[in-house]
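[09:14] KT: can someone run the structure on this one? pasting the chain below
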Amino acid sequence: MSRNAVARFKDPTAQLAEMTRELNIGAVLAGTVRHAGSQVRVNVQLLASPSGEVMWSEQYERTVSNIFEVQSDIAFRVARALQASLAPEERARIERLPTSNAAAYELYLKQQPLSSVVPERNAEGLRLLDEAIALDPKFAIAHAARARRLRFSGNRTGRDDTMAAVAAAQTALTIDPQLASGHYQFGMAILHLGRIDEARRSIQHAIELDTNYYIAMQDLAIIEANSGRLDQAIYWARRALPLAPNVSGSYYTLGLPLTLLDDRVAERFLTAAARRFSSGVEELLAVIEMRRGNAAAGFERMRVREAANPGNAGVTSLVNELAVYADTPDAAERLDTWVKTFPSQRGWWAPYTPRTLRAHLFMRAGQPERAQPLIDAALAGIRQEIGGGDRRPYPLYEEAALQLMLGHRDTALDLFDKAIDAGVLDSEFPKVDPLMAAIRHEPRFIASLSRIERLVAEMRQRVDLSGLEELVAPARN
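[09:31] RB: done, structure tokens below
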């Protein structure tokens, strides 16, 4: 079971019955760690659930420098108590020390709870990881964690940080070729460069190395959804959900392809999930409103989320998009700020960078001379992406909108068809997308939307969408 899934339970012995119901588990490893100077005392118990019977217990007193021996011993003793057999590669992974430097490991642990989506916290996490790596340059998992944080920076700042993330993941894999997190972070970093097939293979390899790697499964589901392979996305999302049934991301990951396959089913599933979760779930519910032509309702829903999550770049991104689609009074002001801070960051749902959205607002206001520099910059960015091997559909869809602003309707229609070939399988958003309004009634555009609908219908027949509400965690309590 994932760390995130059990994080909210503060007292496993007192909450054992609740954990059993919510997580469908058979045993819990509980314990305490006391750290004083260079000495560490660890008390640990393996409890059968829901009875609370002690299956095994031990107390360890060690120096900090020997603490990794305790971790390995606990792993082997728990496996023995559960009568589980360990494959040679599993045994080797348990015995392999993450680092020989206890101070480096402590710095690594300190950065773990720091948010990656809040820029200031992410920067602090990077600083701690840099210190850890300075103490032990061979600390592979620290390099992989650094790749993750650089990846999140790259979402906002662009290619330089993304390339740094790729390099950090490669360093991790050079040190430890069997490091699942290294393969996962490498795959996610090159995904941002548009190398979809290579990213998919790398993340699948990470799952082969760690068959409980639920975050890798979730991100693979998102990759498949964004690539137009909705049935595959459902497979990976449903495989990940039992490993983290009380984590909001599990419901977002399943809700994303559901929204494209059948938004009525998605709405019921997400509404049930929203009784406990907000992150990701509220975003998709807002998107469903927007796709149905009610961007104002989606904007109001997300404005509440923004107020509750100041500094969350992903939430702010979606609010900014919805402000444009809903034509709110503050849309231009929001876009001006977004263009200044993160000009290359793509939107949360629509594949537009803020430069393209701001250019749209200028064009709508009858100021093409102010839109032109933004259009030129956005087109230059797209050329760089495609020239660098980006195979995602986003640049194609964005360029279609830009070509429409320039009055090139046939070129825009050609690009829209290419975006469908690359994986755009949303037939509803283009109908309400104000940047596509100029071709909304074109026969070619209508025929392209019909093609999307046929492709989605074929995939819908390959998946079972019944009973999804029952997967929501509160239903089991």
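[09:33] KT: thanks! The first helix runs from residue 3 to 6.
[09:34] RB: yep, looked fine to me
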